[in-house]
Write a structure and sequence with these properties.
15 helices, membrane, transmembrane helix, globular, mainly alpha, transmembrane, Vacuole membrane protein KMS1
Length: 421
């Protein structure tokens, strides 16, 4: 009889635990800034406080030398900044390089962090920067436009060369009878430093998923993203979503083949699946240096140079010449087009000259209105994307903290029922 009562009690506790999990799952899905803003913010702040508390305890316990060296470096930096002397110009130059490096690395981190919800700063900053520099170089026929390597787009500051006229730089250094012919390699040398720094940032942004997944694997648990992939059903009706789901499942089933070269290939090709590769590398115990070095080489060099060459080629008049020649060659085989080819060629040349010509200076009032409207639209788009990124980070952090609390509560209930039996 006692065994029958025990079995009944265990079944009841199992049913209660399952009901509790379902209720917790519903609460977790409703925990967002739009549905429960105060609770979500409170849990987010608690999670941040807990993280920094653990970090401080870790530094006090094991990183005393790190804290001491950081304090000494900070004190030396403050001394150099506050004390006047001939070193000021060198300190100012160094601070410019530090701001430049931190800016582009931070943009790279923001572009890759967040498991697919990252802020795509290549489209917002690096891509337009390379395109604008290429167009300016084509218009002026020279690449020595920057006043310094750090003369790029930065926070609340644009490059000095963007608003200058070509006469201020001097006569063209690359020219021919049909306009400027700036070699791709010359432009590449001028924009590769910021692009590589951005690529290093994207590689650093892949480390959090790897470390979280590795910690979960070492503790005997499965990372949340892996659980969602295993338990996800085919609810997404889109063709692209279904295709990505199939690719993710194939990648998961072949994860035992992950090594330096496969990770390098995945990191070198622009794709939305590398976050999953980072998670799997942590889940299946790929060594850190094997993962990080392959990711760094792939993202900071191979992928970055592919993107740079692509953007420069699009904005390069050599590409326009190639398209023009190929189009004329193809149309030459079409009967009846021979009579239209001279007119078509003249129109293509006019369009190319208009595209590459140096714009005439506008009146100050029109230029001011145009700059104001463009800056307003651009800043609005950037801030909307930043707000969306921040909302996703807050929601994900609060949900993860709340899920951990719920798992502990369910575990306590199971332990209590076991002891009562």
């Amino acid at each position: 009889m006692d065994s029958g009562k025990g079995a009944t009690t265990s079944q009841q506790m199992g049913s209660l635990t399952e009901d509790l999990r379902e209720r917790h799952q519903q609460e977790l899905e409703n925990l967002t800034l739009t549905t429960q803003p105060f609770k979500t913010l409170r849990l987010f702040l608690l999670a941040i406080f807990q993280y920094y508390k653990r970090l401080a305890l870790y530094l006090l316990a094991k990183g005393g030398w790190l804290a001491l060296s950081s304090t000494l470096i900070a004190a030396l930096g403050i001394l150099l900044v506050t004390i006047e002397g001939p070193h000021e110009k060198h300190v100012d130059e160094l601070s410019q390089y530090i701001r430049f490096g931190l800016w582009w690395i931070a943009l790279g981190v923001a572009s890759s962090i967040g498991l697919g919800s990252g802020l795509h700063t290549f489209v917002l900053y690096l891509g337009p920067h390379i395109a604008l520099f290429t167009i300016k170089a084509m218009q002026c026929g020279r690449v020595d436009l920057k006043s310094a390597p750090y003369d790029t787009i930065q926070l609340k500051r644009g490059p000095s060369w963007l608003d200058k006229s070509c006469e201020e730089f001097g006569p063209p250094l690359f020219s021919s009878t049909h306009g400027s012919r700036v070699p791709l390699s010359s432009i590449l040398q001028q924009v590769q430093l910021e692009a590589i720094l951005w690529g290093i940032g994207t590689a650093l942004g892949e480390l959090p998923p790897y470390f979280i997944s590795r910690a979960a694997s070492e503790s005997g648990r499965e990372f949340d993203a892996m659980e969602e992939l295993d338990g996800s059903s085919s609810e997404d009706t889109g063709v692209i979503a279904a295709l990505l789901e199939k690719i993710k499942r194939w990648l998961l089933s072949h994860s035992q083949h992950l090594n330096f070269f496969t990770i390098l290939i995945l990191a070198s090709v622009p794709n939305p699946l590398f976050d999953l590769a980072g998670i799997m590398c942590g889940q299946f115990g790929i060594p850190f240096w094997e993962f990080f070095l392959s990711t760094l080489i792939g993202k900071a060099f191979i992928k970055t140079y592919i993107q740079m060459v692509f953007i420069i080629s699009i904005c390069n008049n050599q590409l326009l010449d190639w398209i023009e020649n190929e189009l004329i060659w193809v149309l030459g085989f079409v009967p009846g087009f021979d009579t239209f080819l001279p007119t078509l060629t003249a129109k293509l040349h006019a369009a190319k000259d208009k595209y590459l010509s140096t714009s005439q200076p506008l009146p100050s009032n029109i230029k001011g209105k145009w700059d104001l409207s463009f800056a307003l639209i651009w800043n609005t788009v950037v801030w909307l994307m930043l707000m969306n990124f921040f909302v996703k980070i807050v929601n994900a952090t609060a949900q993860r903290y709340y899920k951990k609390q719920m798992d502990e509560q369910v575990g306590d209930n199971v332990s209590a029922s076991t002891h009562s039996d």
